[in-house]
Each structure stands twice: as structure tokens, then as C-alpha cells.
Amino acid sequence: MDVFKELFLMQQAYATLFSLTNKVQMVGDKYLEGLTSRQYMAVVAMAHLDEDERTINNIARKLGTTKQSVKQLIDIMEKKGYIKTVPSTKDKRAVNVVITEEGTKVIVKCTENGIYLFADLFKDFSSNEIETLWKLLKKLYHFDGEEQDGFESEGFLDLGVDPSEFEQKVLKEFGKRRILKKEL
């Protein structure tokens, strides 16, 4: 492959990734009720951290962003009454982020809507295509040698709802929305 074509493809991939990130964030903001996409992802990061590890630094690390960026998200959610910060039991310099009762209600609805967002975003993708995309994105994340501290493990937040009942309801609707392409 010639260098000009390679450079062109890289520029196109970068520009597409940049604009796609913005587009997906805007669409996600419309789906999620009560939280923005970025705020919701902060909650998802919290679900993938132990309760006593839910510090601003750890949430930032999970999201691949700065502590200052997460602090802004946390401050906004705290003003809305969805979360509160409490002193860390492990590190006197840190605070842990805790979800309030009001936050729990919003997060339950956002989680449901987030699953429907995924069904709609990936409606034209087969399972194999989604898996390939995920692998390629993780490879791109690693461009600087840093591994993504991902979300592969089962996340958990105590949201005060029966998980099996919630999953059954949401997965039924997800199945209706998701038309699986036949795998070749």
C-alpha cells in the first residue's frame, strides 16, 4: 500500500471516529432520561469498581479520561441529588462516590434505555461484526501501550430492584428490537 493512501485512510478513520463519538454521545443523551451519556458511563464505571474503590481517580481511570473531567460530572450529578461523595475509608485524600435513592431511580431508567440504545445503534451489525469492532477498538485504545481497564467483568450496583425481573423485562424488549443477522 502506498504511504499516501495509508495516511488518507488513517485520517478518514480518525475523523470518522471523532465525529462518531460525538454523534453517539448526542443520540445517547436523547435516549437516557436524567443523565447524559458521559454521566451514565461514570455510573457504569462505578458498577465495575468495588464499593470502597469508587473514587474519582478510579472512575477516571476506567473511563480513560482525566480526574478533572470526572469531577465535573460528579459535581453535576451531586447537585441533581443523584450521588453524594463521602470520605474514603482507604485513602484520606480521596472521596468515594455513593449513589443516592433518587439517583437509583434515575439509573434504573437509564440502564433500561441504555440497553435499547445499544439495540438501535447496532441494529445493522451481526454478533461477529460487533465482536470484531470491539477487538479493533481495544487494539486502537492500546496505541500508546496502555491497556483499557475495561468493562468485561460483571458490573454490580445495588439498585433496589429484582435483577431477574428487570433483566427479563428489558431483555424481552431488547430481543424485539434486536434483529440478529444470520452469521455467515
TrEMBL record:
PROSITE patterns for the chain: HTH_MARR_1, HTH_MARR_2
SUPFAM superfamilies: Winged helix' DNA-binding domain
Domain of life assignment: Bacteria
Boundaries of every HTH marR-type domain copy: 1-142
A Pfam family per the record: MarR_2
InterPro entries found in the cross-reference section: HTH_MarR-typ, MarR/SlyA-like, Tscrpt_reg_MarR-type_CS, WH-like_DNA-bd_sf, WH_DNA-bd_sf
Protein name: MarR family transcriptional regulator
